[in-house]
Amino acid sequence: MHRIVYFLKRALRGIRGNPTVTLLSVITIAVSLLTLGTFLLLYQNLRASAATWGGDVQVIAYLAEGMASDEVNRLSESLSRLPEVSAVKYVSREDALARFRRDLGGQAGILEGLSRNPLPASLEVTLREGATGPEALRAVAAKMGAMPGVEDVQYGEEWVAQYGAFMNFLRILGLLLGGFLLSGSALVVANTIRLAVYARREELEILSLVGASKPFVRIPFLIEGILQGIVGGGIALAVLYAAYRTLEPRLSKSFLLAAGHFDLSFLPPGAVLVLLGVGAAVGLIGSALSVGRFGRS
Fold this sequence. Notes:
This protein has 297 residues and is α+β, with helices and mostly antiparallel strands. It has 2 domains: 2-52 and 161-296, no CATH class; 58-154, Alpha-Beta Plaits (2-Layer Sandwich), CATH 3.30.70.3040. The chain has helices at 2-17, 19-54, 69-80, 93-104, 134-145, 157-199, 201-209, 214-259, 269-296, and strands spanning 58-63, 85-91, 122-127, 150-154. The longest helix has 46 residues, at 214-259. The radius of gyration is 30 Å and the shape is elongated. Mean pLDDT is 77; it is low at 256-260.
């Protein structure tokens, strides 16, 4: 316990001894983690909004012309038994035409010249929560398309593909940009700790001469880097939360209009702890790089 207190005191003394450089290091870590946290927050809410929209996602199976009612019933029961399906609704040709006429509104007169109803009967399939991702939708559509009596299957494939590609792009961009910034932060921390080492090199040489082990000399600098990383992570989270609280009322209204009912949410406790842990790890890695060089020199 006495050693831990000693190490902490030495680490805090090192921070107080180089306030300007330490502040630069903390700000660099904070900016890096703020960028990474912003991507995490955006990604989390986009996924949550997609899950909300997923409740309205339907896979439509267009039926072959002339199917008997018992064949339609059997097909509907087969679809209902699929684990991804929560509800199946039959839409007759007449219902489809009436819906189309209603959607046209004032332009419905263009349908008066039709000699026959060109719209097919269909089964509208609503999926269960968690089964509305791009892969799940494709799998369900493939199963439905292979069933007898199904002429065509539609589920907004282009939109789903574009959404999946965008989410993958966002995830990869966040990882690349976050990795680049965090690597730079580790180098800044390394330079900060190196300056502290040089400033106290005479003290450290005396400690080595009187028999202090390398871990005994290095641990305070490692703690110093960890503290810088945690403080930088705390600052990043504070700024991110302040921005979230400021923008959330306006953005929630926009999402509600687009999705029917969706509330933005801040990062969960697990993600907050991960960001703080990443900050501490960046500080530790930077410190380890610096004191490692000192030990070799």
